[in-house]
Amino acid sequence: MNTSIKIICKKTPLKNGLFPIYLRITINRKSKFYSTPFTCNLCEWDDKQGEFKSKYRNSNQFNKALRKMKDDATDVVIQLEKEYKSYNLILFDKYYSRKNDENIRFIELCKKEMVNLENNSQINYARSMGNTITALQQFDKKIHNYSFENIDFQFLTNFENFLRKRGADDGGIAVYMRNIRTIYNKAINFKIVQPQYYPFRDYKISKFKKRKVRKALSEDEFKAILNFDIETLPAAKNARYAYIFSYYARGMNFTDLAELRWSDIYGKSFQYIRNKTDVLLKIKLPDSPIIKEILDFYRLYRPYNTDLIFPILKKNENEYTELELYNRKRDVRTYYNKQLKKILKLCKIDKNITFYTARHTFATAALRNDVNINIIKQSLGHKRLSTTENYLEDFHDNEVDQVILGMF
Asked: Mean of the pLDDT values across residues 205-218?
């Protein structure tokens, strides 16, 4: 096999102006790069030797660490050559990752997974994993010393009790536990821990499942938002307009709404690729006075110099980093949620509402109007029918009675 192992300094600088150091593996002219914690100026790096120059601070210590990475990669290649007639980068990566993780502790693998999620632009999941790590560190100051065998039924039960004392509900606890389960499953796959230690055979996350809480507004409640006199609460105008538009745009997600451009709209139609699922959605807006009112308002109200319809982002999305874009959308959505709650309070509607309920309200309204669930699935941009089913609000008891009585 034509295999090359080298430590390199990439010539593309980071935001701080320094250049990152990588381990590069090349097999049959295809390369894969493994990041290291090291950076430097170009003048401090010896390209020929693949190491820091002697005048670089801590050069001996850092070069020793880089040589260890290179030796580990070499060991993997030797093992592959013994076990296989031929191999590729995918097989190398499987063995190399396993070798690096052999002695890794529980919290270390959690942190590694969080970095992987960030690198894959899965910001929400990365933040969720980060929150889990923080909670675990607050629960037990010695968590960094725990091996996977220490994460047993009693540990999980004690952690659950700790979370409850802090005010976490079943839904929040379930998220923490699912993150821990994900890490444990990876550890078993990587041969870090034996399957017999798996704690989730006895500790059941399914116990946190509750009967579906209605997340949709009724027809009358949605009409109350439509008829709401915004002059009584001017600060809520953007939140109300965005919520109503989301509903009529077939439950358009907030993150997609934030990136909707005037150039996307042709008359009353537009199309977009949903951020979450990469599904292309083609939308035709209804010929409704409120839609005309919303679009006419934002043609005149242009607080930021962008082609974006709604004033959610201050600049175009490609001018933000992934994390900046996530934070901006989150902050505006949080503000909109607060304004929507104020609207409902003034409408004397006792229901917890967030921007996301526009999506659930659209799905439920479609079902009530006898729209086939497969069409609802397509409208929402879901890939699985089971996901759509979770959106659909349970019918009230009296509605069930009407349906049943209609059979006789």
From this structure: 73
User: CA 26 to CA 36: how far, in whole Å?
Assistant: 17
CA–CA gap between residue 232 and residue 349 (Å, rounded)? 16
Side chain identity at 109, as an amino acid letter? L
| Backbone dihedral angles phi then psi of residue 321, each to the nearest 5 degrees | -75, 165
DSSP conformation letters of 26-41: EETTEEEEEEEEEEE-
pLDDT band at 169 (very low <50, low <70, confident <90, very high): confident
Instruction: Convert 268-308 into a string of H (helix), E (strand) and C (coil).
Output: CEEEEECCCCCCEEEEECCCCHHHHHHHHHHHHCCCCCCCE
Residue 98 backbone phi and psi in degrees, to 5: -65, -40
Q: Which of 25, 22, 26 is nearest to 12 (CA)?
A: 22
Separation CA 398–CA 402 (nearest Å): 6
Residue type present at position 168: A
Number of helices followed by number of strands (H, E) in the chain = 15, 8
Q: Where are the alpha helices (DSSP H) in 205-308?
A: 219-226, 237-248, 254-257, 289-300
**Closest residue by Cα to residue 67 from 23, 35, 29, 122:** 23
| Residues 6 or more apart in contact with residue 135 via CB below 8 angstroms | 159, 162, 163, 176
pLDDT at 118 over 90: no
Using an 8 Å Cβ cutoff, are 7 and 22 in contact?
Answer: yes
Residues 128-133: contacts with CB within 8 Å, 24+ apart?
Answer: 128/175, 128/179, 129/179, 131/176, 132/175, 132/176, 132/179, 132/180, 133/107
257 to 20, 238, 248, 280: CA distances (angstroms):
36, 12, 12, 14
Distances in Å between the Cα of 84 and the Cα atoms of 73, 78, 91 are 16, 10, 10
Q: Which two tokens stand for residue 391?
A: 């959106």
